[in-house]
Fold:
Amino acid sequence: MRDIDYGRLFSEDTFSFFRSPVRDIFKRVDLNAIHSFAGGYPSAETFPLEVFKSTMAAVIDKYGGKAFQYGATQGVTELREVLSARYGVPVERVQITSSSQQGIDVCTRILADPGDVVLTSDPSYLGALQSFRSYRADVVGVPHEDSPEHFRQVYRSAIEDCLERGKKIKFLYMIPDFQNPSGETLSLDERKILVELAREYGFLIVEDSPYRELRYSGTPVPTIYSLDPDIVLHLGSFSKIFAPGFRLGWIFGNPEVLDKIYVCKQSLDLCPPVFDQYVAAEFMGSGDLDRNLAKSIDLYRGKRDLMLSLLDEYMPEGISWTHPEGGLFLFLTMPEGFDSVAFYDTALDNGVAYVAGSFFHTDGGGRNTMRLNFSFMTPERIKEGIILLASLLKKALA
Amino acid sequence: MRDIDYGRLFSEDTFSFFRSPVRDIFKRVDLNAIHSFAGGYPSAETFPLEVFKSTMAAVIDKYGGKAFQYGATQGVTELREVLSARYGVPVERVQITSSSQQGIDVCTRILADPGDVVLTSDPSYLGALQSFRSYRADVVGVPHEDSPEHFRQVYRSAIEDCLERGKKIKFLYMIPDFQNPSGETLSLDERKILVELAREYGFLIVEDSPYRELRYSGTPVPTIYSLDPDIVLHLGSFSKIFAPGFRLGWIFGNPEVLDKIYVCKQSLDLCPPVFDQYVAAEFMGSGDLDRNLAKSIDLYRGKRDLMLSLLDEYMPEGISWTHPEGGLFLFLTMPEGFDSVAFYDTALDNGVAYVAGSFFHTDGGGRNTMRLNFSFMTPERIKEGIILLASLLKKALA
Structure:
């Protein structure tokens, strides 16, 4: 029997797929056997197992067979209504997604043709870069500038460059709160500048907001969506406020755009997981979510503070890091010339994992950076891991 | 503030999206208030609520936080292993999907470029047609012929037509067991012919198999996958043997093709719902699935037999229907000239719903056909509904 030449049958898109180095780390090592600062995992301590158990039993008693039947493509009404009430967004502007990663993917699908520009901060979320590239979008990364004036200038200049190249800019992707990977938060001025530019040049903003409710210090900044709900698609996630094992997220947006997403989602997967949606609605509606979130925030604040103080105490000269007010990550910058991709094998052989910063860059830059997660491990493992990493870095930089 | 011209921003694909008339029926009417033969819903009676409740509690006790954490993109090992054991397929050939609709969609995504041919039976599953068209595939429907000789001939001639038009044929999509919408099953000879043609012309077969385990009479026919596992992507679903409210399915296939699906799925939604997968693994592994399936088969056999005998008793002359050996549907053919789309409003106004057969046809044909579901309603409602539909048809045909 002849061998099959599958390559001949694959679509053009597949040649732009690239695999996640983060997900590949999880294939390579047992997360529980090493000091892992690599993943964006919540701590399993934050999952209230007995509450989940009783919430599930309550959902079965309350909804019966309906909880296990096919559901509406927009999501079940009960969940859309609790989100609407919590965030003050009209229910017709709420679409439930089967994970906020699906939110990113479906927005890209309905907006970007091959060659169209997607603008994003540089660095940016790896899973978003995977999705943009999988549709053969032209991903243009814009480095962060600290003053609003410079911020506007680098974005405007990136936009003008694209237009000069004859490109269509479809949307700007941004994680304004406790960004993945940098941990940084955009100021209100910066958010307003992005809305002004989107209005001026006629593109949309995809605001990815999975960490927003995990704030440990400082003052909340209004969402970009709240500044202009018709130019922004706001993506939310249950992964960090409930549990990632339920694959649930949401999109807030203009109904005309949501209608395209609705029809697309019919053929993607018919509807989000129904039972999980009722559990999420019950958990949120009963107040359990907020009670649990308050505990998670206390836990993560402690871990962030611990990691920051350990970095201060143990890291050698010449290394700097961000000081996030929330979220799951902070970002280290080593001296120019340091290569965090090459260093990775040394680190892993010694039992500590991180994600090399260049994976988050649109142009392979940031070789001297790395992302550290502080939510997943116990304080003891964080301490051991940072001391270990610091000593390895000291040797490498000597 | 200026209005936004969203149309200018939408991708080319979106202009080929079409909405499901079936899902729109569910928006228009309350399924419980009418006699609905429209959906492909399992009966809620088949969901063993107390077993689900205890299975969930057992999963939480057994796996703890792991059941609520992010999971592997291929699916959790425990579920892949029970599927591997049940169906005798090596575990490296098993990919879990977030619904078998996602299986259809991701196969199309990795194979079809705009203009590429997807072959399918005519009629075919509406949700598959939505997905193929959403990627701007050239969907070519092949009508069913009863003798193997004619069957081979119509497929070969459709294939040759495509090649003459300079088209690439990427795959053939087929539901060989108790097809949606016709209820018909392909013979072993027909399955062998499809494999021979796929090998000869170098395209893949996507075998969609959601109803296979719901057999009420007759003898099982080998899957197309079992005839040639390297040319076939076999799609399975938990929706009809467990519950559709868990959005879970699987793909069996050659590892080289599965690897493309794996990387694609990373950016689609990272991983299938984790807790639901452990519940499915537990439910299947404990024997509860088989115990429950045996009851579902008895229930549905009774409903099928009831509907067939009611059709015999009440339908006017000139109407014929299929006699499925399993699944959820049978298919009615009215005399030429009858228009089941136009008749739909009359039926719905009188409290009975079906799906017009033309929605399942690739070319708008089959205006004189309709699909009836027999799984969802109680025997009493089936009886009232068929008597009602027969009397309305009698008037319309008079």
Q: What stands out?
A: DSSP finds 13 helices and 13 strands in chain B.
